[in-house]
Amino acid sequence: MPFHSYFDFRESLFSIASLRDAELRAGLLDALWVALRKTEQIPFKLGPRVAFLYKGEAQSVHWHGDFNAWGHARSIDSRGERVGKSDIWILERELPRNARIDYKIVVDGQWMLDPMNPHQCKSGFGKSSELRMPDYEFPTETLPRDDVAKGTLHHFTIQSKHLGYDVEYVVYLPHHYRRLQKLPVIYATDGYEYLDDEQGALRVTLDNLIHDKKIAPVMCVFIDPRNPHNKSENRRLKEYPMNEQFGKFVAQELIPTIDASFKTNPSPKARVILGTSMGGLCAGYFGVAFSSHFNLLAIQSPSFWNKPELFAMYRKAKRLPLKIYLSTGVIYDSLQKTREMRDLFIENDYALYYRETNESHSWGNWRGRLPEMLYYFFGLNKHQVIYELPDMAHQPKPPHLQNKTAIKFNFAPKEPIEHATMKLYDIYGNELFTAFNERKASGFYSYDCAELGLKRGLYFYALKSPSVSKFKMFSVR
């Protein structure tokens, strides 16, 4: 690990940024920046501490994201601090070790993705940069694999009498569909987003888990809320908040069409309604209003606050034949009302799997929960038990600086031989000693760290000649 503590990182950054020698200061900061970027440590995170970082000339730098309600939480300061005499800006926060959040940088009033962070998350509002804290585990089940047999997608449009307009939907059939019978079916609201490999990635997840024989083969119907004749018109806010006509469309028009056209298991016990946010509210509503058609509810970050009367409907209803998966983030998500509904489900003794994550109201969260939802409803053999994520404390950490037993470099001056010096510095920018100060021919060189007296830790070297100026950070194990 490059830095033994967050304190070491912070002291290194601020000490180097305060050096009086401008050339040395710039060189060491650039070397530190390159090392952090190569090891995907921008933002820098260690334990529960995180430092958001930006490098560039600016008058002001802010960070907005899930951690401060995207700037709406006025009590949480989002202003970055310029680090010493450098062009580096920093904002420090403390977050759960396994958190995952979305954010953007605002430089002089202009919003932007973090140019140093390769991780991004797509939403209905475009892409955001993604912070993955040290113990966050990315759901690899949602990544496409070349070795996996793929299911097929089939596009349809149905004219709804109950809604009075056309609805587009996509049917996913698992690989070897022709050999299968009586398939359970997932009906996904916001279907085009659940289908998107950068958002829900549900098709990819189904392919992977079915191929690995971790879940039974499953069909999925992705219901698109957009007007098929004008995709810029999204009807979800009209269809999903406990809209009886939308419920009747699914129950009385779409389900009969699917059951008549495909080899489904027509039992409500084999039928899932899946949704997130307003779609999660819709799934909760279907459970009480259309339980004769759906016994399996997959509810993600539901907007129960939008229709508080749903709570009264569940309180008045006799115990329904429901099996429920319910999840929510705890950072900038619909937590309070979700917990209230959780308690109501428990009070009424429903079969319930409940999950809270240190994440937010975003597709990064929802995508990550789909594997365990699928295990819960359709898990096979040893996977029939409720799926639990592995112990985060024992997961490998992100790659860091390569440990060295020797300083190796290629010296390529303009002249065949030039006078060169190499100086060694500690992580705070303090000069330790000069490794050499002599004429050097162009070529490859290696200096043993033990012979130089370098103990385990982080260091910089500065190699200089009339035509060469090189600064690099390295680790000695």
Q: CATH superfamily membership of the largest domain, which one?
A: Alpha/Beta hydrolase fold, catalytic domain
Strand content range: 25-35%
From the coordinates shown, what is the CATH architecture of the largest domain?
A: 3-Layer(aba) Sandwich
CATH classification, class level of the largest domain: Alpha Beta
Radius of gyration: 28 Å
Number of helices: 10
**Can you count the beta strands?**
26
Q: How much helicity do the residues have?
A: 10-25%
The residue-averaged pLDDT reads: 92
* Class of secondary structure makeup: alpha+beta
Distance between the termini: 9 Å
Q: What strand order characterises the main sheet?
A: 10-11-13-12-16-17-18-19
| CATH fold field value of the largest domain | Rossmann fold
Give the CA-based shape.
Answer: elongated
Major β-sheet annotation: 8 strands, mixed
Number of domains: 3
Low-confidence stretches: 382-403
